[in-house]
Design goal:
Elements: H1 5-16, E1 30-33, E2 38-40, E3 47-54, E4 58-63, E5 66-67, E6 73-80, E7 85-94, H2 96-99, E8 105-112, E9 115-117, E10 120-122, E11 125-127, E12 131-134, E13 137-138, E14 149-151, E15 157-159, E16 166-167, E17 171-176, E18 179-180, E19 189-191, E20 197-199, E21 208-216, E22 219-222, E23 226-230, H3 231-234, E24 242-243, E25 252-254, E26 259-262, E27 268-275, E28 279-284, E29 287-288, E30 294-299, E31 308-315, H4 317-323, E32 326-336, E33 339-344, E34 348-352, E35 354-355, E36 366-368, E37 374-377, E38 383-384, E39 388-393, E40 396-397, E41 404-407, E42 410-413, E43 422-430, E44 433-443, E45 476-479, E46 484-487, E47 493-500, E48 504-509, E49 512-513, E50 520-526, E51 529-538, H5 540-544, E52 550-560, E53 563-568, E54 572-576
Parallel strand pairs: 2-12, 14-23, 24-33, 26-34, 36-44, 46-54
Antiparallel strand pairs: 1-3, 3-7, 4-5, 4-8, 6-7, 8-11, 8-12, 9-10, 13-16, 15-20, 17-18, 17-21, 19-20, 21-22, 21-23, 25-27, 27-31, 28-29, 28-32, 30-31, 32-33, 32-34, 35-38, 37-42, 39-40, 39-43, 41-42, 43-44, 45-47, 47-51, 48-49, 48-52, 50-51, 52-53, 52-54
Length: about 600
């Protein structure tokens, strides 16, 4: 029930005292409701702080030590006949704009009694406890993630999960094979005080992929997968683990090659085949490859020594770009009288095939007299694997003969006649693509007779570059990284870059390529060209753990004729934000005459 202040005061006076001609004496206001200790602004929805107090004439809000505008405060008053007291309630809305850029935004209430003592105004007040208002935060990186393990049957195993930094404190949810676990419904599962997951009596049915999910008002983030397997299922003991070349020669029918190359259009196909095994799997960069990605052919499925398994794993270029070094082995598992025995192959390394567009050194046109001996030299583009060179005349491959000598990057034609007049091509090619450098050989009776067989010319190795501006419609960074970013304890530095015309966008920090799950990408089409925006958050902890400067740059990957080309963006430095406590100049009290201008000087603390 809400009633007017005048009526409430007169009623209170009736119950307590005569209000005419007497001094009043009342206790300080008494808070019964304080601001909530922590409140969070979610999806830009304001937070309402509430205070309630007895024996108060007014309640005001103080935030960060400053009195808030009373127009933003809503006040309600009610009279309690049983106690004869007035309860005053006040509410105040805190918005996103109030807390933006501030780590600790707090408010408190002041309840005033407005008494008159000895004929003089003597406003007295009581302070409530502080309530903190903030935007919820959840970091991306776990303090510790669960680790894959092989576990003995009937034993206990613990998976540890230390949640990322967050406010409010993140809750931990455990998942197995993508589905939520319910420890309160499974006597074999236990959650510790530190939120680790304990499987008390491990069985084959407990095998699977486990992960933990940290969740609060800001969202959720999931850890990497930890695979639990029954120990005897993989390798009972080190003595049962054999390298392929130590095992029976008939065990593996096909093992990975030493090197593979993958391109944008053609994944690298790693093939393994084994005889007599029960299972065959791929492990790359110490992680088991999902069976859904494997092409498998099994003969004699019932098992036995004649059972054969052939598996193919096709590695796309994007996987190698994201992971950097990429190494794969094959595991074969056999059932023996002593239990399970494992055999592994030697690793095969998968690399990204590349070839530059520009030759290190191009061919040059020649005009010579008939009968001359001429030499053409080219230095092919840089590439992985190293490009091979073939020579062509008028688009027909040249073969060595009495008149033609070919030595790698050098072509010599002796006693030139009209048969060799035309376009000479140096063709460089590898699995990533083909590049050509061409020149024209002309014959003229007026030209000089040349005998290049007697020449010794050092071959140029300097890469030629062009400083011409990019033509309209070419690929380019429409938004590059800024020169400097700053990270705070609860506010990572957000790096954003956008490239027009790229097939892929990656980020490199301190010389190392960040994993794909660190970079959030957004794709769009602008003027008919693909646009990719990459967003990376750099935490303060990463900066503090780095000796020297912490720097990053964006790399755009473009594909042309099956070859990859990289374009580096600007280098950006990420530093720790700071704010000193002491102001350089503090405003001073001054006295001025009415109607005059008052000037206050304030120079903030040093900070960045």
């Amino acid at each position: 029930m809400e009633i007017t202040t005048t009526f409430l005061l007169s009623t209170l006076c009736t119950f307590l005292m005569s209000c005419v001609g007497q001094d009043t004496s009342m206790a300080l206001p008494e808070f019964v409701t304080h601001p909530q200790e922590y409140s969070y602004i979610v999806k830009h929805k304001p937070v309402t702080l509430t205070c309630e107090a007895y024996d108060a004439m007014e309640i005001t809000f103080n935030c960060l030590g400053m009195k808030m505008d009373t127009e933003r405060t809503k006040t309600y008053e009610s009279f309690e006949p049983e106690s004869g007291r007035i309860l005053v309630k006040a509410t105040f809305d805190v918005t996103q704009n109030d807390v933006r850029g501030l780590e600790d935004y707090w408010c408190e209430c002041q309840a005033w009694n407005g008494l008159v003592e000895g004929g003089e105004a003597a406003d007295q007040f009581t302070l409530s406890r502080r309530g903190f208002v903030m935007t919820p935060y959840l970091g991306k990186y776990f303090g510790e993630e669960p680790q894959s393990q092989s576990v003995e049957e009937d034993s206990s195993v613990e998976l540890i999960c230390v949640a990322p930094e967050g406010h409010p404190e993140p809750k931990i949810i455990w998942k197995k094979n993508g589905h939520h676990l319910h420890p309160n419904k499974d006597d074999n599962l236990l959650i510790t005080e530190s939120r680790s997951l304990v499987i008390q009596n491990f069985q084959m049915t407990d095998e699977g992929d486990y992960s933990c999910v940290a969740k609060n008002l800001a969202g959720k983030v999931e850890s990497s997968i930890a695979t639990l397997t029954l120990q005897d299922y993989i390798v009972a003991a080190e003595t049962n683990l054999m390298m392929a070349d130590e095992a029976d020669e008939s065990t593996f029918l096909q093992i990975p090659e030493k090197e593979y190359y993958t391109t944008k259009d053609t994944p690298a196909a790693i093939t393994c085949a084994v005889k007599g095994a029960e299972f065959l799997e791929f492990r790359c960069n110490n992680g088991r490859i999902d069976e859904k990605l494997i092409e498998k052919d099994v003969t004699n499925p019932r098992g036995g020594p004649e059972r054969k398994i052939k598996s193919i794993y096709r590695v796309p270029a994007e996987t190698v770009i994201s992971a950097g070094d990429y190494s794969c082995i094959c595991y074969a598992w056999f059932m023996t009288d002593a239990g399970w025995s494992g055999t592994e192959t030697k690793p095969g390394i998968v690399k990204l095939a590349e070839i530059d567009e520009r030759f290190v050194s191009e061919l040059e046109d020649m005009t010579v007299a008939p009968g001359s001996t001429v030499t053409f030299r080219c230095q092919p583009p840089r590439g992985t694997p190293a490009p091979k060179v073939i020579w062509a005349l008028n688009n027909q491959q040249l073969a060595e003969s009495a008149s033609v000598e070919i030595s790698g990057n050098t072509l010599m034609i002796k006693q030139v006649d009209s048969r060799y007049e035309g376009q000479i091509s140096c063709v460089a090619q590898n699995i990533a693509g083909t590049q050509r450098s061409t020149a024209v050989l002309r014959l003229s009776e007026d030209a000089e007779m040349v005998d290049s067989s007697k020449e010794t010319t050092d071959f140029p190795t300097t890469l030629m570059t062009s400083t011409s501006p990019a033509p309209p419609g070419s690929s380019y960074f429409s938004q590059d990284l800024e020169d400097v970013y700053y990270a705070a304890r609860r506010q990572p530095a957000e790096l954003v870059c956008t490239y027009i015309g790229a097939n892929l966008l990656t980020v490199r920090c301190n010389g190392n390529r960040l994993a794909a799950n660190r970079v959030t990408t957004q794709e769009d089409v602008i003027n008919g060209q693909k646009s990719i925006t990459g967003i990376v958050n750099i935490r303060l902890q990463e900066i503090r753990e780095t000796s020297g400067e912490f720097y990053c740059m964006c790399l755009a990957w473009t594909a042309k004729d099956g070859a990859w080309k990289t374009i580096e963006g600007s280098r950006s430095v990420i530093r720790e934000a700071f704010l000193e406590k002491a102001f350089m100049v503090v405003p001073q009290d001054i006295e001025v005459m009415a109607g005059r201008t008052a000037v206050f000087d304030c120079v903030p603390p040093l900070g960045a």
